[in-house]
Design goal:
Layout: H1 18-27, E1 90-93, H2 120-132, E2 142-145, E3 156-160, H3 169-180, E4 184-188, H4 192-206, E5 213-214, H5 237-242, E6 261-266, E7 272-278, H6 282-287, H7 293-317
Parallel strand pairs: 1-2, 1-3, 3-4, 4-7
Antiparallel strand pairs: 5-6, 6-7
């Protein structure tokens, strides 16, 4: 676990255009109206914490998936009258991409790149969605394998670091069925030509007859809540700090990583089923928001959260 500054950043609503916030509040109707706030409440990270291992045999709980230390991220309970009618951030577990066992999620072998930035990325993003928009959001999120029958209970999946992903036949077939039946996949955090080639081989297992297409900047996904004027590039905090003086915001040792690209895969009716966020790391902008004030202001607040919120709202309204 990376060290953090003890004080988390305060994300000010004034940093976002009023029209964007109005759109976020109005795109999906909330069952319970939320109070207006000027700032998101600051909270303290524990000075030191030792991440626990995930174990089996948890006691029954109204929040059965809350199996980890939240590290100071604010907590809340879904509305009692609609505990299942909430948005849940679902991270895909996949078994390729490296060796070892993940510390934060249940594994059944294979690689551990699926758990990059986990769980802080997922917790922070879920919290910001709950706080900034009218969405009711599951505070805990889920991690699911592509072959899990529960996958089809959720409309949104997040898959990270797929630069050398290799799916089994069953995983590829299940993901294809999920997407063609109305599901949405967000792919994030891979850089450079080599990693693109690895991902391309993997996605071709799912859709051998469909090509990823670069999304133009005037596509609705860049404007549906926050009106973005660029295809945002979010580096990891380490790369951001290392390249700050030179204005470098990409992983410089990887050829082809210089420019952020957002590609889409469409179904036969033209519905965007999958957004591929290439040469950018939105997840690190969520995970590491509390560690450095400059990084928070330049990348988390201006880029990672607005783009992430746009993607979720686009997925849920199309």
């Amino acid at each position: 676990m990376n060290a953090r500054l003890p004080k988390r950043q305060s994300l000010r609503l004034s940093a976002f255009p009023a029209a964007a916030l109005a759109a976020a509040s109005g795109l999906l109707l909330a069952q319970v109206e939320k109070p207006k706030i000027e700032t998101i409440q600051e909270f303290e990270y524990p000075a030191e914490f030792d991440p626990p291992e995930i174990t089996q045999g948890f006691a029954p709980s109204p929040r059965p998936h809350a199996h980890f230390d939240r590290h100071g991220v604010p907590d809340w309970d879904p509305p009692a009258h609609m505990p299942e009618d909430v948005f849940t951030f679902v991270r895909v577990i996949y078994d390729s991409g490296g060796g070892g066992y993940g510390q934060w999620g249940r594994r059944r072998g294979g690689g551990d790149k699926w758990r990059t930035d986990y769980p802080d990325s997922d917790l922070n993003f879920s919290y910001r969605l709950q706080e900034l928009t009218s969405l009711e959001v599951d505070p805990d999120g889920r991690t699911l394998e592509l072959t899990d029958p529960e996958l089809f209970d959720y409309p949104f999946l997040y898959l990270i670091e797929p630069g050398n992903i290799s799916l089994s036949q069953l995983e590829a077939e299940t993901l294809r069925k999920y997407l063609l039946n109305g599901g949405f996949l967000m792919v994030d955090d891979f850089w450079g030509t080599d990693e693109w080639d690895g991902f391309y081989r993997g996605i071709k297992q799912v859709f051998p007859d469909r090509e990823p297409q670069e999304l133009p900047l005037d596509h609705e996904i860049f404007h549906c809540v926050f009106d973005l004027t660029e295809k945002v590039q979010v580096p990891s905090i380490d790369w951001a700090l290392a390249g700050r003086a030179q204005g470098i915001t990409y992983e410089a040792y990887k050829p082809g990583a210089e420019t952020a690209q957002y590609k889409g895969i469409f179904d036969d009716k033209g519905r965007l089923m999958c957004i591929i966020c290439f040469n950018t790391d939105l997840g690190d902008g969520w995970e590491r928001e509390g560690e450095n004030h400059w990084y928070f202001k330049e990348f988390s607040e201006k880029k990672a959260y607005p783009m992430g919120i746009n993607i979720v709202f686009y997925a849920l309204t199309h």
